[in-house]
Amino acid sequence: MAAPQPPGSPWAGPGSAAAPGAARAGPCWAALLGCLSLACSYVGSLYVWGSPLPRDHPAVIKRRFTSVLVVSGLAPALVWLWKELTGVKVSSGGSSKTEGGSQCPPKPR
Protein backbone atom coordinates (compact mmCIF):
# COMPACT_ATOMS: atom_id res chain seq x y z
CA MET A 1 0.00 0.00 0.00
CA ALA A 2 1.34 3.41 -0.93
CA ALA A 3 1.95 6.06 1.69
CA PRO A 4 -0.63 8.85 1.72
CA GLN A 5 0.50 12.03 0.01
CA PRO A 6 -0.11 15.48 1.46
CA PRO A 7 -2.77 17.62 -0.25
CA GLY A 8 -1.28 19.60 -3.10
CA SER A 9 1.44 17.02 -3.72
CA PRO A 10 1.99 16.29 -7.42
CA TRP A 11 1.80 12.59 -6.54
CA ALA A 12 -1.48 12.85 -4.65
CA GLY A 13 -4.24 10.64 -5.98
CA PRO A 14 -7.75 11.51 -7.14
CA GLY A 15 -9.94 13.24 -4.63
CA SER A 16 -7.12 15.25 -3.07
CA ALA A 17 -6.47 18.93 -3.61
CA ALA A 18 -3.68 18.41 -6.15
CA ALA A 19 -4.19 21.57 -8.18
CA PRO A 20 -0.89 23.24 -7.15
CA GLY A 21 1.07 20.03 -7.84
CA ALA A 22 -0.62 19.52 -11.18
CA ALA A 23 0.78 22.84 -12.39
CA ARG A 24 4.31 21.76 -11.46
CA ALA A 25 4.00 18.37 -13.15
CA GLY A 26 3.10 19.96 -16.53
CA PRO A 27 6.66 20.51 -17.78
CA CYS A 28 7.59 16.98 -16.64
CA TRP A 29 4.86 15.44 -18.78
CA ALA A 30 5.88 17.67 -21.67
CA ALA A 31 9.49 16.54 -21.21
CA LEU A 32 8.48 12.89 -21.22
CA LEU A 33 6.37 13.30 -24.34
CA GLY A 34 9.14 15.27 -26.04
CA CYS A 35 11.70 12.60 -25.20
CA LEU A 36 9.42 9.86 -26.47
CA SER A 37 8.73 11.73 -29.71
CA LEU A 38 12.46 12.31 -30.31
CA ALA A 39 13.19 8.63 -29.72
CA CYS A 40 10.35 7.53 -32.04
CA SER A 41 11.43 9.97 -34.75
CA TYR A 42 15.00 8.66 -34.53
CA VAL A 43 13.91 5.03 -34.90
CA GLY A 44 11.26 5.94 -37.47
CA SER A 45 13.85 7.71 -39.61
CA LEU A 46 15.58 4.36 -40.09
CA TYR A 47 12.47 2.88 -41.69
CA VAL A 48 11.08 5.85 -43.62
CA TRP A 49 12.74 4.76 -46.86
CA GLY A 50 11.11 1.77 -48.52
CA SER A 51 13.56 -0.24 -50.58
CA PRO A 52 13.66 -3.71 -52.09
CA LEU A 53 17.38 -3.81 -51.30
CA PRO A 54 18.68 -5.59 -48.18
CA ARG A 55 19.55 -3.45 -45.19
CA ASP A 56 23.26 -4.17 -45.65
CA HIS A 57 23.34 -2.64 -49.14
CA PRO A 58 25.54 0.49 -49.34
CA ALA A 59 22.70 2.61 -50.80
CA VAL A 60 20.37 1.68 -47.91
CA ILE A 61 23.10 2.36 -45.36
CA LYS A 62 23.73 5.83 -46.87
CA ARG A 63 20.00 6.67 -46.86
CA ARG A 64 19.60 5.58 -43.26
CA PHE A 65 22.71 7.50 -42.24
CA THR A 66 21.29 10.62 -43.89
CA SER A 67 17.93 10.19 -42.13
CA VAL A 68 19.55 9.76 -38.72
CA LEU A 69 21.83 12.74 -39.39
CA VAL A 70 18.80 14.94 -40.15
CA VAL A 71 16.88 13.82 -37.06
CA SER A 72 19.96 14.20 -34.85
CA GLY A 73 20.53 17.67 -36.28
CA LEU A 74 16.94 18.72 -35.58
CA ALA A 75 16.89 17.36 -32.01
CA PRO A 76 18.71 20.31 -30.36
CA ALA A 77 16.39 22.77 -32.10
CA LEU A 78 13.35 20.83 -30.89
CA VAL A 79 14.70 20.74 -27.32
CA TRP A 80 15.31 24.51 -27.47
CA LEU A 81 11.78 25.04 -28.81
CA TRP A 82 10.33 22.88 -26.02
CA LYS A 83 12.33 24.89 -23.46
CA GLU A 84 10.99 28.16 -24.85
CA LEU A 85 7.36 26.99 -25.04
CA THR A 86 7.28 25.55 -21.52
CA GLY A 87 9.21 28.39 -19.89
CA VAL A 88 11.87 26.12 -18.39
CA LYS A 89 15.07 27.94 -17.44
CA VAL A 90 18.30 26.09 -16.79
CA SER A 91 20.32 27.48 -13.90
CA SER A 92 24.11 27.39 -13.78
CA GLY A 93 23.87 24.45 -11.36
CA GLY A 94 22.14 22.38 -14.03
CA SER A 95 18.72 22.05 -12.40
CA SER A 96 15.72 23.04 -14.48
CA LYS A 97 13.11 25.44 -13.14
CA THR A 98 9.97 26.86 -14.66
CA GLU A 99 9.25 30.58 -14.67
CA GLY A 100 7.09 30.14 -11.57
CA GLY A 101 10.10 28.76 -9.70
CA SER A 102 8.83 25.19 -9.42
CA GLN A 103 10.80 22.14 -10.37
CA CYS A 104 9.72 18.73 -11.59
CA PRO A 105 8.43 16.82 -8.58
CA PRO A 106 10.74 14.29 -6.95
CA LYS A 107 10.03 10.58 -7.25
CA PRO A 108 7.82 9.20 -4.48
CA ARG A 109 9.51 6.82 -2.08
TrEMBL record:
Q: Which InterPro entries does the UniProt record give?
A: Rce1
* Residue ranges of the TM segments: 29-49, 61-82
Taxonomic superkingdom: Eukaryota
- Where are the residues of the annotated region Disordered? 1-22, 90-109
Which keywords accompany this UniProt record? Answer: Membrane, Transmembrane, Transmembrane helix
State any single GO MF term.
Answer: metalloendopeptidase activity
Q: Where is the composition biased (Low complexity)?
A: 10-22, 90-102
Protein name (database record): Uncharacterized protein
Lineage, top ranks: Eukaryota, Metazoa, Chordata, Craniata, Vertebrata
